[in-house]
Each structure stands twice: as structure tokens, then as C-alpha cells.
Fold each of these.
Amino acid sequence: MRVMVTGGAGYIGAHVVRALRGDGQTVGVLDDFSTGSRARLDPATPVYAGSLLDTAFVEAALRDFEADAVVHIAAKKAVEESVADPLLYYRENVTGMHSVLESMVRAATPRILFSSSAAVYGPAATSPVTEESPTVPSSPYGWTKLMCERMLCDVAAAHNLSWAALRYFNVAGSAEPHLADRGETNLIPKVFRAISTGVAPKVFGDTYPTRDGTCVRDYIHVCDVADAHAAVLKQMGSDLSASVYNIGTGTGTSVLEVMAAVRQVTGIDFHHDICAARPGDCADVVADPTKIRTRLGWRSRHDLKGAVESAWQAWSALSRSGS
Ligand SMILES: NC(=O)c1ccc[n+]([C@@H]2O[C@H](COP(=O)([O-])OP(=O)(O)OC[C@H]3O[C@@H](n4cnc5c(N)ncnc54)[C@H](O)[C@@H]3O)[C@@H](O)[C@H]2O)c1
């Protein structure tokens, strides 16, 4: 299959490109490099540099690449930023999805796999959450993902597209140093950045109704997330599917437990600062991944320690090389 990956120069996108290649697919990347990096891409990768919001450009890229499928990963992803600047999120994520779907319809590209998020569930869902749990997001970011799922469902029905939405939980780790998460939003790289500069990492809220008062999340290794794309795409090649899948481990870890894992892996003892809870954060969000395991046989293979170890190796290698 010829697969166009939007956001393929980003953290998760580059791992998905790697996994799909490993699975024998021919992969192209469409990215505006707003947060992505060319250093994550093999120089032989066909790259279409530009914005999702430019529908004529996306359509031309799909036609030129002769794409059989789109893996739509490109988006803005920070909950806190979405609360401060919701218009940015509705434009980039929702208008971006509209543009991708319109381009696909015009270019007759029949399949789409979409990067959704556990942020669609919100506080109304009780962990572990299934795909049928209530979806009442607590942030504009979560709403953009839910709106994209709805748009996908409606457009796919009208234009006979095969689609799947993967609701990732908290993605961590790295397959190789040059693919690492260099962002400022995810917990593990934030802790690495803090301890590398001698600053105490921040814990936002310690009075949540969880076992130690800090937020509980389901941390999934990015290689497992990438492999889930290969598994879903394979199934989409043979039938006209329409599915939503949770992509998580089924195990919850609190912020303090993540800090403990970082201390263990790095051998660095550090203090953390307790700060006020952030708007939009839920207490406990852990996946029930039964559906994808039962239907496709996919399951996570890595644990939290493996994710922290690979992320720390990548962080250390990038720090040594000064990139
Ligand atoms: N990282 C997580 O823990 C997590 C969890 C759940 C869902 N997700 C979703 O996974 C996806 C990827 O996340 P990530 O952590 O790899 O982020 P990232 O910022 O590393 O990657 C996003 C990529 O999309 C590109 N991009 C952004 N806007 C674009 C536009 N308008 N046109 C073209 N390219 C554009 C960026 O340059 C970048 O390469 C996002 O959709 C995010 O919402 C991430």
C-alpha cells in the first residue's frame, strides 16, 4: 500500500513511518515542520512540505504520491495551550481534518487512519475506559479530536471511505535517539529537561482522588503505538472498516510513580515541586485495550520502565551530540 503520513516528521509520526516501512508499505510524508524535524526522516522519504490547511496542496500531494491511504497524525496537541488559544486548535485540528478529507475525496484516496486521543473521554468516563465510555472532553483539544472523529464518520459514510480512529493514551519512549520526543508538553521529557538543568520538576495537583493524589495516566511506548498503525492498516487493506480503538496498556501510573521510575532509570535523585492543578486535567485516564486485542491481536509489548529507559537513552545521546 502507498501511505501518506501527515505529521510524519513529528515524534509519533516518525515512529509510524518507521513501523509502516518495516511492514512493507511505501510511505510519503506531508508536514509543515512547525514542530517536526527533517532529522527524523530518512533522506529517501518523499516529503511534501506544506500545511494541511492548504487543500489544493494536500490534494496535489495525494495525487502525485498516488496514495492508497492517509495516516493523519499532524495536529496541535497541548491541552493547556488549547485552553489558552482554542481558536488555534479548532483551526489546525478541525479545519485541518476538513482539508484532509476534502482532498481525499477529490483525489479518490479510499482509506484514512486518524490520530485521536484519550482526551476525548474527559472526567465523565470511569477508568478503565472502553471505546463506548462517555465522551465529554474537558479541554478544547479533546473537543477538536472528538469533532474530527465525528467528521470522519460522516464523510466516510457519504463517500465510502474506510476509516479508523486510534485513541492514543500517553505516548512515551523512543525507538532511536533521532526520533525522540523533544516537545515541551509530555511529562517524561519535561522531567528530563528539569533534572538536566538542576530544576525541580513540577507536579500539577496532589489532591486528586487517586492512590497518591496525583493524576494517573496510561503510558504507552511509542513503538507499540506505531505497531498498532501497521496492524490496523493491514486490516483496512482487506475490508471497508470503520472503527475506533483505544491504544493503551491497561495499566495506570501516577505522576509520582513516573518520577520514581525516572529516579530509578537515571540514577539521579531529585526533588519535585507540587503546584496548583491545571485546568483541563482529569484525575484518572486508563485504557481498556480489549477491543483492538480481540479484533486485531495487537497488544502493548513494553512497560513503563522500558519507555523511560529508551527515552532517557535518547535524551542522553541528543544532549551529548548537542542537538
Ligand atoms: N504525544 C502524545 O502523548 C499524544 C497522545 C494522544 C494523541 N496524540 C496525537 O498524536 C499526534 C502526533 O503527536 P506528536 O506527539 O507526534 O506531536 P508532534 O508535534 O511531534 O508532531 C506533529 C507533527 O505535525 C506537523 N504539523 C502540525 N501542524 C501541521 C499542519 N497544519 N500542516 C502540516 N503539518 C503539521 C508538525 O510539524 C509535526 O511534524 C497529534 O495528532 C496528537 O494530538 C499525541
Note: DSSP finds ten helices and 14 strands in the chain.
Amino acid sequence: MSWEGYLFVYLPGEVEAVPAGRLVLDEAGPDATASRFGYGRRYLVRPNAVPVDPVSLPLSCLPGDEATYEPAHPPLFGAVRDAAPDFWGRRVIEARLRVPPDSVPESVYLLHAGPHRFGALDFRPGMDNVEAAGLLPPITQLGYLMEAADRVQQGIPVPAQLEPVFTGGTMGGARPKALVIHHGEQYLAKFPARNDGFDVPVVERACLELARRAGLDVPPTDLVKLADGRAVMLIERFDRKAKGEGFVRRHAVSALTLLGKDEYESMGARYEEISARIGRFGVDGQVQADRNELYGRIAFNVLVSNDDDHLRNHAFVWDEAGKGWRLSKLYDVVPRPQVAAERYLHLSVGPRGRLATLDNLLEAHGDFGLLKRDAAAIIERVASVTREWRVLFEELSVPEHECNKVASAFRPPREIGMNVVEKVL
Ligand SMILES: Nc1ncnc2c1ncn2[C@@H]1O[C@H](COP(=O)(O)OP(=O)(O)O)[C@@H](O)[C@H]1O
Ligand SMILES: [Mg+2]
């Protein structure tokens, strides 16, 4: 079996998509086995054409009547995989189609992820097909969305009147979420999940605000209390911007895609590889700024024990002015309480691998284009803020018992090599 259709792109500043080329997906049962893509001639000559995939489909590709391309990592092009739902989005689509988990072909998930998917791609069976309908609900509907999400988590049917969750419920990630309109912009709403050990939405939101205080680039966030007392975290989308009645999109890909890697290669990948890719695919004049930001994020992850820092939790957005890929704003950063004295991040930090210490990170300074002293200054800036996390959490009304539940995640800088960093300052 194979699916053949058109890959559309919403070009920078435009609210309508244009066809970029023809995509073929070979499938055996629910599994994709191979893909091919050829750019349309008309697309490639557009002055504001966006590369579909930085690694496998740069704009230097030949048009489709001269060449078709295959993904760096079969079966899917990284950018196509990023535009398809993963764990949570799949459950939402299955609930709508009333089919068992992971039972339908990849192309079904790809087509059903709808117009609000991550990034600026869309998939349509024909050249003349228009965008799938689907208005996002306002945050006043969060209570209903949460109820629908509860049902999806339990695998029980969702009644028709709760269906708005399906309009925008197909972003990536595993946790329950939906998309909503807030202050006229698109926000990702992240719900509590069954079996959470602490109030994740409240803590995640506070942690993102802590990152902002530490000088990191964080989208606007908010917290909404539902009538039943549960809290929902909101984070503004960095790949959408309101324009007139619609939204313009920025094409975005995961770091997994920028590195041309497959899911199973994420563990053991190195931050240094992300830095090298920023050098290769980034925007002239902005490479060091993005490396500094990445370096600060690693320091933050070490200090708050965010060890879920896998390659899908870092993203890049296409920068039209600079014709390159910029590090996206920060998202999905959650402290993970634990008892271990020796801790590890998901990605490798420095010469001592994944070991989550500040001296390990300091030693890697050269991989990020940093002088040792400048690297130490970034670490010091972040550590001086995370050290005072309780003050901000209190300011944000995080209840004390929630602070206590996550306290073990926040590491006293001195216990993880801050003395070595201070010597350089
Ligand atoms: N602020 C945002 N703007 C645009 N896309 C986002 C934003 N936050 C998350 N995403 C996308 O949604 C996916 C899931 O969000 P994430 O916060 O990582 O959820 P989870 O906790 O389920 O992993 C991310 O992998 C990323 O692709
Ligand atoms: Mg995530």
C-alpha cells in the first residue's frame, strides 16, 4: 500500500498554504516503510520558499521532475514526523475514529492531525484540496477540553459535544494537551495527567517562569484554575502569530530532525551536536546568540534536574529574514524530584558524558564557541536564579506542599561543581 499526496507549506507571513511538492509514503499495515518527496518547480523558485526539512530537503534540491529524495532516516522525513502526532495526538485521533491504539496507517494520523499541527506543513490528497476546517476553542472551553482529555486518557468514548478537543489536540508529546485561543493568540494547554506525583501544570509553569528570570527565552505562560480545582498550564505557541482573522505559521522542526536522527538515537546524543548544527544551519550573525541560549538551557536543566531534555524537547524555527534555522523558544522544562546524588541528563553535557554537573558543562565551553570565563558567567547567571527558586514559586502561589514535593529536584549549585565555575569568574 502507498499513500500519495501533496505536501503544502504555509509560507512566511501568509495565511494560505501553497503546494511544495509530491509526497509518497509506502506502508505495510500500520507501519510506514519508506517515503519519497520531490519539490515542485514553481515552489522552488518562490523567493520566500521554506525548506521542508533542513537535512533531507534543503532548497538546493532539484525539482521533482528531475529528482526525488528520500529521508536521511527512513521511513519518514524528520520534518514530516514532526508534523505528525506522537503519543497523545495519536490517542486523540483514535478516539475520534473509534479505533484501537496504533492500529491505522501513518498516513491516517498525518492527514488527521489537521491545520493546527506543529510547524507550517500540511498534507492533502490533491493539489486542489483546501485546508481542513477547525476553529480552535477559547480558554472558556478549557473545562470541556479537560473532560474530553480525561476520557481520552481512560480510553472511553468522547461524546460529540466534547469534540472541540479534537480540533487542536494533535501536537506532539505524551502528556494530555489541547490548543486554545487566549488573548487572540494560540496557546498550548497542558493538563494534569492521571498518576502525576505532583501538580505538574502548576510546577511546570513556575519552572518556565524561573527560566525566564534566569534570562532564558520563554514564551508567555499562564495558569487557569478549573471549577473542579485542577490547574491547566498555558504556553503561547512560538510557531503561530495572529494575523487578521487567521494565523501565520513559522515552520519548525525538532532537534531530532535538525540532527537527522531517529527517535532511538536521541539517548546518548550530545548537546555539542546541537551546537554544531546551529553552526551549519543557523543564521549568520546569530549563531553565537543561539549557542549562548542553548548553553544557558543546559545549565538550567542540570540545576533543576530536568532529565527529559530529549531531542524532541528542543526545536528550531525557520527564520525568513536570515534564511536559516533559529533555536525556538523554551518549552517542556519540568523539575524531576529524585534522591540520587549522581544525576544524568538525557543528552550528553560535556567530557563526562550525561553527568549533570556544572563543571562537566563548563569543560565543554569550547564546543559552544565560548571562552571559559563567558561560559562560567552564563552558568553563574542561571545558578543565582535557580538557587532562589522557592521565592519565585511562592510569589506565583505554588502551595508549600507542592514545593516540598519537588524540592529534591533543585540542586544546590555547590554540590554540583559550582566551586570550579567560581574559580574562573
Ligand atoms: N510553546 C510552544 N509552541 C509551539 N510548539 C510547542 C510549544 N510547546 C510545545 N510545543 C510542541 O508540542 C510538543 C509537545 O509539547 P510538550 O510541552 O513537549 O509536551 P509533553 O510534556 O507532552 O512532552 C513539543 O514536542 C513541541 O513540538
Ligand atoms: Mg515534550
Note: The pocket of adenosine-5'-diphosphate (ligand 1) is lined by residues 88, 118, 171-175, 188, 219, 235, 237-239, 312-313, 315, 331-332 (CB under 6 Å).
